[in-house]
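Repro:
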Amino acid sequence: MQKMANRIQLSEIFTSIEGEGILFGTKTMFVRMAGCHLKCIWCDTAYALPMDSGNSYSVDYVKKLISKYLKPNTYKVNFTGGEPLLQYEVVIELAKFVKEKGLRTYIESACFDSSRFEKILPYIDICKVELKMSDSKAVDPKHYHNLLRNEIECLEIAIMNHKITYIKVVITNSTNLKEFKHLMKNIFKVIKAADIAGFIIQPCYGVDEPTVERLFEFYDLVYPSYREVRIIPQLHKVIGAR
């Protein structure tokens, strides 16, 4: 789904506490785009997945909504979904607007298309690059290699453009350790530890949850290459935030 550049399919705009990644705990405005073509088993925003969910607005109207609902001392504006790259042209327009207001911009995407990702980068300050394991079921097996290739390309592009960049991998109890080890090899073949601002192992919540012992196995595979690896759950769920 690619809307015309002057229209956006929007699920919601709200301010809450960032509950994931290296910037957890920060006051954040979330601009949630509607529509996602992926099928991750742990998705917790199912209401934003249908391509025709949410509401269609003009970009100018959404700019007014951002201004109206922006709260004092907001640390960043998070473009999320759904899948924001499906509407990358309007993300560019909104991110420009947010940066003109002196705020940090943050993209939360599955990074399924490196060419679209590269187009939005000039207007984004912080990039979370999520590398999906095959047990995510995000795509069918024959398309998984292409998804992973695009994700790693997005990682490289973000680093080359000197963005604050971190990696997130969601781990279930069924995640294959050998597959993860191979992924680590591929990641640190193309980047250096100093290139990234963090590496987050996120335990799956509500579906096939991993044990602490299982999480340590994945942590121990990252640690030799990146000692600042962290296991961080979705903390907003712990405190009852959105």
